[in-house]
Amino acid sequence: MIAEVPTQLFIGGKWRGADDEATIEVIDPSTAKPLTSVSSASPEDGTAAVHAAQEALRAWRRTAPRVRANLLRAAFELMMERQEWFALLISAENGKALPDARAEVAYAAEFFRWYSEEAVRLDGSLHVAPTGDYRIIVQREPIGVAVLVTPWNYPAAMATRKIGPALAAGCTVILKPASDTPLTALALAALLAEIGIPAGVVNVLPSHRSGAVVGTLLSNPAVRKVSFTGSTEVGVKLLHLAADRVLSSSMELGGNAPFIVLADADIQSAVAGAMVAKMRNGGEACTAANRFYVHDAVADEFSQTFASAMNSLRVGPGYEEGVAVGPLVNEAARKKVHALVDDAVRRGADVLVGGDIPHREGYYYPPTVLDHVSPEAELMHDEIFGPVAPIVRFTDVEEATAAANRTDYGLVSYVYTADLAAGMRVAEALESGMVGLNRGVVSDPSAPFGGVKLSGLGREGGHEGMLEYTEAKYIATSW
Length: 479
Ligand code: NAD
Known about the structure:
Blueprint: E1 9-11, E2 14-16, E3 23-28, E4 33-39, H1 43-60, H2 65-81, H3 83-94, H4 98-118, E5 125-128, E6 135-142, E7 145-149, H5 157-169, E8 172-176, H6 182-194, E9 202-204, H7 210-219, E10 223-229, H8 232-244, E11 248-252, E12 257-261, H9 267-279, E13 289-295, H10 296-311, H11 331-346, E14 350-353, E15 368-371, E16 388-394, H12 397-405, E17 409-410, E18 412-416, H13 420-429, E19 434-437, E20 452-453, E21 456-457, H14 462-467, E22 470-477
Parallel strand pairs: 7-8, 7-10, 8-9, 10-11, 12-13, 12-18, 13-16, 15-16, 18-19
Antiparallel strand pairs: 1-2, 3-4, 5-6, 6-22, 11-21, 14-15, 17-20
Helix pairs in contact: 1-7, 2-4, 2-5, 3-4, 3-6, 4-5, 7-8, 9-10
């Protein structure tokens, strides 16, 4: 299957090697062995991709919305037809377990379907000016060439969540996927070419020289938009670059999600929600519950039930049937997770399950539950990005909400309670762009996904996601 995936850059509808023939080795995290290598774009390749995208923009922005919609719908259909193939590919280069990979393909494809439906519903407005002597017409126009930069944790979905709305709005794009997972992005490019997306509308540039290539792209006057998903650290750098050219910027950055369990919560459903909120994608998700605040009255029952559910998960190569948790993406990620666990234990946390690096090849880390974690522990402040759940007990819900808000991040929060009014009060007090109230998952292509504070700017998904790729054009007219 790996042999079927193109390994070159995709620029202007053509596959080609990097200008200086540089390559990136792609590693299988389940074995730590190389899978293949792909071309690694140079800044000059970046400039070539901007030319291609600029050239294609002229016709694409004028293509009938219905035609763009039909193409996106075809992309959805073909991706779902090949769900298993894409799932195996994602699992091979990212390491995630097949159930997570299959779910990602369905989620990723859904962005094509949702935005095929949005493509024909881009409305504007017309009203009489307050003075009564002219009309105010507002219509939406495609913003232009967009640079999309994506992370390795959802190699398909983070790309389609940007490509879908950009194409629906009439923009052309240059996608720079993460160097750990370039194959899925290249396979998506091939799929889009196969269904008939015109040359130059989608260009894909893997590169291990991310800073230089993205810097070149963002300084090109033909580029009008940057949409980034990744760490806050890199997002801030890109915002500085974007400022130089006053570029429209959408930023989906890091998280530090609290998961609050009130005293009246149904513990079985809270644990089921915790398993999804923590373990979807093996914990490598920006939406992953990072800190569990559990009311003292139910904390013993919650932590024991949660620990036993975590202990029952089978860890192994992501692409093996029956495996629930694959390896982490690379050794650096595993080292970071283990250092955070060590720090929490040094500060007095009890290890209920997990906590040790297994002796086997590949970057595995066991599902881990830590109880009685000190609020000072580093993992309460830092994104864990792995299968580790720290539990802190509380007695006062207002204090727990204040503790949950004591972070620079604000992507998503989770609350479990049997009292919907109490849940709504907490949900409204939480400083995050999204809240799961009695739900362990919020991501949905039809909903506005995004964060506040250092978690980001703008929204992806829903109607809002498409507006990010448009500009309002206001025409004043009298007749
Ligand atoms: P990362 O910031 O290291 O990399 C993201 C992308 O940026 C990659 O394509 C990378 O090659 C590129 N990049 C790295 N340095 C760059 C530079 N100097 N200039 C331009 N591009 C550069 O993040 P990651 O490790 O791939 O992903 C994990 C992070 O992504 C986590 O913090 C996670 O929370 C976040 N994330 C956020 C969301 C969200 O929607 N909010 C979704 C998924 C992941």
